[in-house]
Amino acid sequence: VGSVSAVPLSRQVQGTGGSSAVSKCSAAARGYIQDRFLRLLAGRRRRRAPLIHRGYYIRARAVDHCVQDFLLKTQSHPRTQVLSLGAGFDSLYFRLKDAGLLHHTVVYEVDFPNVVCQKAALIKRTEELSALVGDTAGEGLGAIAFSGEDYKLLGVDLSELPELGRTLEEAGLDNEIPTLFIAEVVLTYMENSRSDALIQWAAERFPRACFLLYEQVHPEDPFGRVMQQHFSQLNSALRSLTQYPDCEAQQRRFLGRGWTECSVMDMNEFFTCCIPEDEQQRVQALEPFDEYEEWHLKCSHYFVLTASKGMEPSWTPLLPHVTVPHHAGPVGMAGSIPAAVCARLSGIPGLRRYGHCSVLIKPNVILTTGGFGEEDGQHCRLRNFHVLSKHAGCWKAGCVTKKHPDKRWGERLYHTVSCVSDSLALVVGGRMSPSSAGLGMLWLKFPETYNASDPDDIAVELVNLQPAAEPATLRWRHSTTEVTFKGEQYLFVYGGRSALEPVLGDWYFLHTRELCNTVIAVEGAVPESRHSHGACSWEGGVLIAGGLGAAEQPLGSVFLLRAFERGFRWQAVETYPPLIPRYSHTAHVHEGKLLLVGGVWFHTSSMPGITVIDLMTGLCLDYVINVEHLEWPLMLHNHSSVFLPNEKELLVIGGGGNCFSFGTHLNPEPVSLSLSSILTSH
């Protein structure tokens, strides 16, 4: 991470560089990236989480992809050079040299003087590194901390352009030969006027040049706000974001400062388009993983940009290997829905959770179970159940007394709860960790009568079940929906994932009374496998919408499992315009309209709000959620929601997740959305 002008800031910014070296080293140790030099340069060793590994994998992959493309396109030139700005303890030179890719290329690295001095000392005392640099390497003069035949380390402030130019000239940088500039999360820490000047200086001084930029984007959506807050707390604010909040603004920035070609991709696009399918599958299988939402949100908040001028042939490393539908344009919003905090529910820690399940167990009484959240000031998998009840127009919260030991509950996430009577609900599936087998079924018994004015007054008994339909229930991120066939009630368990299968496309009909798996004929083209989809009962059958498919790509398909005399039949529901692919949303149906709430999509210009699909006409309308009355970012994924048809009120409970290395965000309180304006008859 590179130099900025403000002296007090430099130490914090250097800290981000050290942390990133440790993360890259951890990713290499787990096989994400092949780089034996990171462990020699990183110093500290620390094992990071799989989400961090993926984040640093995609970063390393994007930089390598573009650097190697530059070296390939310029191999006919007698000499080329790479200038890495704010290189920190990066291993780029050693990897390229080791791979035999630097026959006629010199690598220059610029960073704070104390960083390059540390790196120079490290190289000299580490035989494996010094052997690659060669015998001729030694200390340079002044700002040149280290000088080898094809490797120079320069300690200079990037924001002081005259000094930077002088030092580079002394070190032997040649303005006339093809030059690649690399800025990997560097410019964003500088004042915009200074980083803009650097971009323009590079274009003006080098007639044949390429620029590679990797940094953050989208500061104003919920994930972006958490990301910004994290860097501000580290005293290393992301300064580019105010002036250049999206990929298009960054592109205009370069084209307006002397660069003639510029292309940009966010990291979801890069992963899908520029990484071969077999490599995607290799990475996805490296570790047990279940943080898809945070992975895709992280990828939508980082981009890679390449700009060039005077290059023959033109340098276009971001041309995709495959063509995918591009969703960068704005989503046409049909209107907005105001979000209101439920006044009496603030400060109740048990409602701050994600990966949980909420179900209406009686009119105006909601039971919330499981998930990951906050308990006694700690983040953990939650054992406590919570109940919300509406009395005299106000929601009140209370805890639940559980009968029988907690072991039966098993601290589960991503399970389903289905009410089968006034006093009985069935818990299906869920998991503890992504590497452990899914959890089976459990009965929840609660009193038939209930005093809504006193929400603390409820006891729930946990009853273990014999593994009558175990294969159906060893899954999570699935759906369990009530269906009717020949007058009998069944629970339709569909999709999800398991410890062995990253995505499932099978289904089971569980007879509600006997809980045995019943074989019922199903006709029609089978929907592709999915998890984290939306599902709800409709006219005796099931509606399935969206979800995450086999290649970890969001799906935009909607299916109806419709009952007929001999069984059920899958039917595709066509939507106009086509539904934007999404997953991790919730679904409800009301008077022939399917409501999809929140979720994650790759459409970077906006966040999913509420989508209304008219099941008669297929008309699909998107509504934005107006959060101006909320004092915190509303993350609408991994949430639960309950729809109260009489009031046309939607209550959103929990939601959020582990936001990459930026900390865990939990929506602090339930939010009420009034849908009466969008559900009136048109």
From TrEMBL:
The keyword S-adenosyl-L-methionine applies. GO terms for biological process: tRNA methylation; wybutosine biosynthetic process. Keywords: Methyltransferase, S-adenosyl-L-methionine, Transferase, tRNA processing. Pathway: tRNA modification; wybutosine-tRNA(Phe) biosynthesis. It catalyses: 7-[(3S)-3-amino-3-carboxypropyl]wyosine(37) in tRNA(Phe) + S-adenosyl-L-methionine = 7-[(3S)-(3-amino-3-methoxycarbonyl)propyl]wyosine(37) in tRNA(Phe) + S-adenosyl-L-homocysteine; 7-[(3S)-(3-amino-3-methoxycarbonyl)propyl]wyosine(37) in tRNA(Phe) + S-adenosyl-L-methionine + CO2 = wybutosine(37) in tRNA(Phe) + S-adenosyl-L-homocysteine + 2 H(+). It is an enzyme of class 2 (transferase). Residues 1-20 are annotated as: Disordered. Gene3D superfamilies: Kelch-type beta propeller, Vaccinia Virus protein VP39. It comes from the Eukaryota. Signal peptide: none annotated. Residues 11-20 have a biased composition (Polar residues). GO terms for molecular function: tRNA methyltransferase activity. InterPro entries: Gal_Oxase/kelch_b-propeller, Kelch-typ_b-propeller, Ppm1/Ppm2/Tcmp, SAM-dependent_MTases_sf. Pfam families: Beta-prop_TYW4 (PF13418), LCM (PF04072). Its EC number is 2.1.1.290, 2.3.1.231. Belongs to the methyltransferase superfamily. LCMT family. PANTHER family: TRNA WYBUTOSINE-SYNTHESIZING PROTEIN 4. This is tRNA wybutosine-synthesizing protein 4. It comes from Neopipo cinnamomea.
